[in-house]
Amino acid sequence: MTKIYAIYGASGCGRSLMPVAREHLTRLGIQSRIYFIDDRLTEVTELNGHPAVNYHMFKALPYTNKFVLIAIANSQIREKIAHRLENDGVHLWSVQANNTIIMDHVDMAEGAALSPFVTITSNIKIGKCFHANLYSYVEHDCVIGDYVTFAPSVKCNGNIHIEDHAYIGTGAVIKQGTPDKPLVIGKGAIVGMGAVVTKSVPPGVTVVGNPARILEKR
C-alpha cells in the first residue's frame, strides 16, 4: 500500500472523529489502517482498536502518501500542526460522516472534519481545517475562514461571514445577514454556548446571552 491515514489527537475530539474517519474510507472503498497520533506517547500502543503513535513514529512509517485529519479543538494549535504537516509533505485529510449533507456550489478547503448530521447548503466557501460538530449547519451564501470551530448544534444562517479562528459554542444561533450587509463574526471571536447573535461581533471578543453581548473582562 502507498497510502496511510491518521487522526492527529487522541483526546475526546479525536476519538469521536475516528468512527467518522472509518466510515469515510469505507464509503470510498479504501481499505487502510487508521492511526492515532499523540505526541505524549513514547512507544506504539493501542487506543479504541487503532494503533497510536507519536508524530515522529508516524512520519517514519514506510508509506509514500500520508493523510492526517487534525482533531485538536484549539484552533491555534491546529494551525501550527497544519504548517508542520505541510512542511513535511503530509497531506491534510478531510472526513465527513455518511449522513452529512453537502448541497450545491460548496468550496471547502482541505482538513475539514464534518461530524454526523452536519448540513452545508449552497453557495458557501469554507477555509482550511474547519470543524463542524454534531447537528450543526451552514446556510446559503456564507463565507467561513480558516481554523473555525463549530461546537454541536450551531445554527449558522445565510449571508454570514466568519473570520479565521472564530469559535462558535454549542447551540449558538447566528442571525441571517443580507447580501449587501453580511453579519460578520470577527477573527478569533468566541460566541458562547446558547448565544443568539443578532449583529456583527468584533474580532477577539467573547459574546454571550440572548441577544448576544460582549462579555466584559473584570
Automatic annotation (TrEMBL):
SUPFAM superfamilies: Trimeric LpxA-like enzymes (SSF51161). Residues 6-85 form the PglD N-terminal domain. The active site is at residue 140. The record marks 141 as: Increases basicity of active site His. InterPro entries: AcTrfase_PglD-like, PglD_N, Trans_hexapeptide_repeat, Trimer_LpxA-like_sf. It comes from the Bacteria. NCBIfam families: NeuD_NnaD. Belongs to the transferase hexapeptide repeat family. This is PglD N-terminal domain-containing protein. The lineage of its organism: Bacteria, Pseudomonadati, Pseudomonadota, Gammaproteobacteria, Moraxellales.
